[in-house]
Each structure stands twice: as structure tokens, then as C-alpha cells.
Amino acid sequence: MFTLKALQKNKTIKYGVPMLLLVVGGSFGLREFTQIRYDSQRIRKKLDPSLEAKVNVERQPVILEEEYEKIKKMNMEEWRNIRGPRPWEDSREYQDQQRSRLDEKP
User: Fold this and answer.
1) Fewest CB within a 10 Å sphere: which of 51, 56, 77, 102?
2) CA dist 32 → 35, 42, 75, 102 (Å)
3) Is-contact 98 82, C-beta < 8 A?
4) pTM score
5) 14-69: pLDDT as tens digits
6) Which residue, among 50, 30, 27, has the nearest Cα to 38 in the 3D structure?
7) Please, what's the b/e burial string for 57-90 (b: 16 or more CB within 10 A of its CB; e: otherwise)?
8) pLDDT for 50
9) Are 8 and 15 in contact (CB under 8 A)?
10) Residue 74 region, left (φ>0) first, then alpha (ψ -120 to 50), else beta?
11) Vertex 62: Cα angle to 58 and 47 (nearest 5)
């Protein structure tokens, strides 16, 4: 039979059991804290109207058919694809170059 001194010298009991209790207890503690976090978010759940429109399909102010009609009315024959500036390019200078090229073309 183990005595109290023998239990205190046992490394498994001295280091393993507290570690095991810390890991298991920590998981339960984290579960409670995360539950509190999600409950508080649910209580004060107020979305931005534009974000709510994206989330809630029934409340969307723009309907796909309306957007299609707008695009259909646009003149696509005169449309040109213009590349935007790269991050390492000076945007103001690049835009001026693009505008001068567009003015030169008939």
C-alpha cells in the first residue's frame, strides 16, 4: 500500500494529475466563456442595413431582373476595358496616360 510520502514522490501524481486537471478544466472553462461571448453577440445583434440586405434575401432592395434591365440599356459597343494601376505604379500618372490614349483613339 502506498503511503503519503510515496504518493508525494510519484512523478505521475505530482505532475501528471495537475496537468490533466488543467487541460480538462480549461476546456470546460473556455466552453463557458465562448458561450457567454456568443450569447452577448446574439443579444446585441444589430446589423448594418447594407450588410443585412446581403444576408436577408427577402429584404434586398435590388432585384436581379432590375439590374439586368439596367445593363441591357447600356451601350456595350463603345465600352473599353481599361486596366487600373498596379500597386507599384503612380496612380495619378497612370490615369493621365490612360486618358491621353483614349483621347487619341477615334
Assistant:
1) 77
2) 5, 15, 59, 62
3) yes
4) 0.34
5) 888 899 999 999 999 999 989 988 887 777 676 666 666 666 666 556 677 788 88
6) 30
7) eeeeeeeeeeeeeeeeeeeeeeeeeeeeeeeeee
8) 64
9) no
10) beta
11) 55
Q: Do 102 and 80 meet the contact criterion of CB atoms below 8 Å apart?
A: yes
Q: In this structure, how many other beta carbons lie within 10 angstroms of the beta carbon of residue 10?
A: 13
Cα separation of 12 and 10, whole Å? 6
Write the DSSP string, 53-81.
Answer: HHH-GGG-SS-HHHHHHHHHHS--TT---
Whether the CB-CB separation of 95 and 85 falls below 8 Å is answered with yes
Does the structure show a pLDDT above 80 at 71? yes
